[in-house]
């Protein structure tokens, strides 16, 4: 292997990975290599052949390791496709947020949906988000059964008992995701939503929140998070399906 292609950054394997008995030792090493390669751009772009040559295993073996890390939600994989639906790139992001740790590897400045500085933002009032969420919790009949069915399919249809035990940040996340899905549903983007699953919707939300935090108090700050998240979902759909 060309030595110039090897990462010069340190790899990091957190305790959640080191002591996870569901992971093979080689998968833990692969995770560490991904963290090292993520330091420069915020994501790892290396293909399976690179890892196969690095660890002297088959490409199929690497594919299984990566799939397992993704299944256990240690990494997020974003596939980019061209207009012919051909894969043009794969980005692997470290996903440490589910374990309550501060994200150590900032994402690339090239966001899922780059915001136009000239956009006219329409700030969504938090009261509107809360009111809609309460209506859905109460199964308001003004909201279509089709929407409730979609939310149930996505695993995002909550009841009051469940919401009461959620932490404040998790409740806020669910409210903002619910509002965004409702907005897309009523804007003729049902086809977009039916292509996604709960995991993807939440992962894109976390990536967008990460971008919002990094851009805070800068000229590129995200003025309307809901709109940013909404456009990110639409853009991901356009690139991948």
Describe the sheet with the most strands.
2 strands, antiparallel
Oligomer: single chain
What is the arithmetic mean of pLDDT?
A: 78
Q: Give the strand content.
A: 5-15%
Structural class assignment = mainly alpha
Number of helices: 11
Report the helical percentage.
Answer: 40-55%
Tally of DSSP β-strands: 2
Calculate the terminal CA-CA distance, rounded to whole Å: 34 Å
The low-pLDDT segments are 1-5, 97-124
Q: How many domain units?
A: 2
The gross shape turns out to be elongated
Order of helices and strands: HHHHEEHHHHHHH
Cα-atom Rg, whole angstroms? 20 Å
What order do the strands of the largest sheet run in, or round the barrel if closed? Answer: 1-2
How would you describe what is shown here?
By secondary structure, this protein is mostly helical. The protein folds into 2 domains: 3-99, Winged helix-like DNA-binding domain superfamily/Winged helix DNA-binding domain (Arc Repressor Mutant, subunit A), CATH 1.10.10; 126-240, no CATH class. Helices cover 52% and strands 6% of the residues. The protein has helices at 15-18, 25-41, 48-55, 59-71, 126-137, 145-153, 160-164, 168-185, 190-194, 198-215, 225-240; strands spanning 75-81, 87-94. The chain has a two-stranded antiparallel sheet with strand order 1-2. The longest helix is centred in the C-terminal third of the chain and has 18 residues, at 168-185. The radius of gyration is 20 Å and the shape is elongated. The two termini are 34 Å apart.
């Amino acid at each position: 292997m060309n030595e110039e292609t090897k990462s010069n950054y340190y790899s990091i394997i957190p305790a959640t990975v080191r002591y996870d008995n569901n992971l093979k030792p080689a998968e833990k090493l692969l995770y560490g290599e991904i963290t090292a390669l993520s330091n420069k751009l915020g994501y790892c772009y290396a293909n399976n052949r690179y890892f196969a040559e690095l660890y002297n295993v088959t490409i199929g073996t690497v594919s299984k390791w990566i799939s397992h890390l993704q299944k256990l939600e240690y990494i997020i994989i974003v596939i980019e496709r061209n207009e012919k639906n051909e894969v043009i790139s794969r980005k692997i992001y470290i996903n440490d947020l589910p374990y309550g740790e501060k994200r150590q590897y900032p994402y690339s400045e090239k966001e899922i949906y780059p915001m136009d500085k000239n956009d006219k933002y329409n700030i969504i009032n938090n009261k509107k988000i809360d009111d809609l969420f309460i209506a859905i919790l109460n199964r308001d009949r003004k909201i279509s059964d089709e929407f409730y069915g979609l939310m149930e399919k996505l695993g995002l249809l909550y009841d009051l008992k469940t919401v009461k035990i959620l932490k404040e940040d998790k409740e806020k996340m669910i409210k903002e995701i619910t509002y965004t899905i409702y907005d897309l549903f009523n804007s003729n983007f049902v086809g977009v939503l039916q292509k996604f699953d709960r995991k993807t919707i939440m992962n894109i939300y976390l990536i967008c929140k990460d971008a919002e935090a990094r851009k805070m108090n800068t000229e590129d700050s995200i003025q309307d998070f809901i709109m940013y998240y909404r456009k990110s979902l639409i853009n991901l759909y356009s690139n991948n399906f």
